[in-house]
Amino acid sequence: MTGGVGFGVFSVGGDAPRVGxxxxxxxxxxxxxxxxxxxxxxxxxxxxxxxRSAWEDTLSRIDQLVTGGAEIIPLEQTVAxxxxxxxxxxxxxxxxxxxxxxxRLFRPDVEPLLPNWRYLPVGYHGRSGTVVVxxxxxxxxxxxxxxxxxxxxxFGPSRRLDIELELGFVVGVGSSLGAPVPAAVVRDHVFGxxxxxxxxxxxxxxxxxxxxxxxxxxxxxxxxxxxxxxxxLLEDRFVxxxxxxxxxxxxxxxxxxxxxxxxxxxxxxxxxxxxTNASGLYWTMPxxxxxxxxxxxxxxxxxxxATGTISGSKHGxxxxxxxxxxxxxxxxxxxxxxxxxxxxxxxxxxxRGRAGDLELGEVRGTxxxxxx
Amino acid sequence: MTGGVGFGVFSVGGDAPRVGxxxxxxxxxxxxxxxxxxxxxxxxxxxxxxxRSAWEDTLSRIDQLVTGGAEIIPLEQTVAxxxxxxxxxxxxxxxxxxxxxxxRLFRPDVEPLLPNWRYLPVGYHGRSGTVVVxxxxxxxxxxxxxxxxxxxxxFGPSRRLDIELELGFVVGVGSSLGAPVPAAVVRDHVFGxxxxxxxxxxxxxxxxxxxxxxxxxxxxxxxxxxxxxxxxLLEDRFVxxxxxxxxxxxxxxxxxxxxxxxxxxxxxxxxxxxxTNASGLYWTMPxxxxxxxxxxxxxxxxxxxATGTISGSKHGxxxxxxxxxxxxxxxxxxxxxxxxxxxxxxxxxxxRGRAGDLELGEVRGTxxxxxx
Lengths: 372, 372
What we know:
The structure is a homodimer. By secondary structure, chain A is of the alpha+beta class. Chain A has two domains: 4-81, SH3 type barrels (Roll); 89-368, Fumarylacetoacetase-like, C-terminal domain (Fumarylacetoacetate hydrolase, domain 2). Chain A has helices spanning 45-48, 52-67, 96-106, 186-189, 202-208, 216-219, 285-293, 321-324; strands at 4-12, 18-23, 26-29, 73-74, 78-81, 89-92, 123-126, 131-133, 138-139, 142-145, 154-157, 161-162, 165-171, 190-197, 200-201, 222-224, 227-230, 238-239, 259-260, 263-268, 271-277, 304-306, 332-333, 339-340, 348-355, 358-368. In chain A, strands 1, 2, 3, 4, 5, 6, 7, 8, 13, 14, 16, 17 and 22 form a 13-stranded mixed β-sheet that branches. A five-stranded mixed β-sheet of chain A has the order 9-26-25-20-21, with no helix packed on it. In chain A, strand 2 (18-23) and strand 3 (26-29) form a beta hairpin.
């Protein structure tokens, strides 16, 4: 299948949201083609819970229908909804380049990459209740921040609002408490991928994050694609991941090629400001899933795991503004001649991704002024 | 009402789980007294979403029924289930004594209390999918750990498995994205409280937690009471919280008395090893709710916010073994003559709480050997 994007939830007019499959600029309504009651739902979760053979059968059926000329609803007649009911949301920190860049900015006095980074995929839990679908306006968050030359924090709208370009994977089939999910069985559990913009207020984050990690600097919103692209459609697009040194512990070893060769770009108010590729990520999806469950933690249908910011090694391939502008020191210039360090009100950010001839669902968001 | 404990979900024999109110050693089945269809559910969430006046009406009706001699099902004939479908789970770090003790142990070379601690209630997101009801066995987690004298981490069952004695509050009525919840309206949103045991694998946590916070050291299980005690039953039990210095920023100021005067204890395999009181916590529930939403993050019915470990200033009032044993250096002695640094397999932990003559739902858990 080419041009296909993935599964999502949509509505037309005031109709109830339902499941569809996006093909190019249109949507195949899966309720009218009677593939089962799971599609008459406001999220993909009932379908995702059915498991891998149902996913594959459905894709075959969709392929037949599209080839056979089934009705496709033009995208512009539809409204897209959040495709999944998110269980837990975990965000990793899988890019060596991003972790090094951020370490240098947040902890200038020590080695940027902390000792644990090459031994385990560092990650943390984000707020699942504020995961929103592409297109949702992003209200500039307020919070506490303290500059290094101030004696006490002040409260106000974030002045260092940033993006994070990420990929996410969505869990279809869950697991039981106490039973780790080995890296080798990832395809039995993970349904597909989305693009993710993990909006970040760097000033709030810098003041709050020690010792328990990011909280309000991230929890105000996380945007995801309206369309989840099944792994099954991406099989040919995985390539060999970077060599890991030291060799990971046995539970993190996995056979096969697990780096997704997906070209990604960040557009900021009309200008593409970053281009990179997800294949450079150090830690891979099966490793992340194995790590997140090795302590016996269970996973659920709808759980979202994101890669963390995807940054390349060259200038112009960083997945966040804090990196692209060297912490605001070197502004970037947009096509209209204006410059940016961090996001300004009314800025629109679009994340796009493509794996071969398959387009991933874009992630779009516009900054709305703070509500104070 | 005295002796009452709160609302929960129970079943008898193989019946479907439903909502009940625990009074002493029995349960009032709320489906048979026909207070509404919301009680014919496997979680409290539909009832919690109704809001404050419905909660108060229900409590009045329960009071009448209990006084009027309605049938009470003996507790031993019932099975308790997880009372809420947890949305997001946030854990704070509200005890000055605990934060100081842990800082000293985890970061011996710097000031134990970090600069942000007195300005904001430090918190992070935990894993909501692994919140379990009291009585659920706790499988000893495996993971990576690295002693300071080792050059690389090793993998295996945690050797420093610990407890954290906490209180949690449960959100009834949610809020909208972008709209902070002021501290003053906490009673319109928060339904009630539970006891929480935030099980912690200290060796896994120490190796993984920088820079993004605790992850696998906590995510394997968090146990909560089977019974949620409504705030409305605790009104007389709030006392003045410790004076805060410096004075908090305006969004964190709140009128009234917000420290819950609840006596708490930790029993370890038959011996009470800690006694403390929740009224000594530095940060209060309305402050935590205001802080968690000041960036515009929304809350949902079923969200769980926990205080973080409750430790007093005297020896024997610490809410974790790492504190009670000075990081395993000074073992504690149990009634049977045995000693403990951290939890051993087959140990049973019971957290109990009492606010005046009102008993909070206990939290019980037994350690099961690691499954490797």
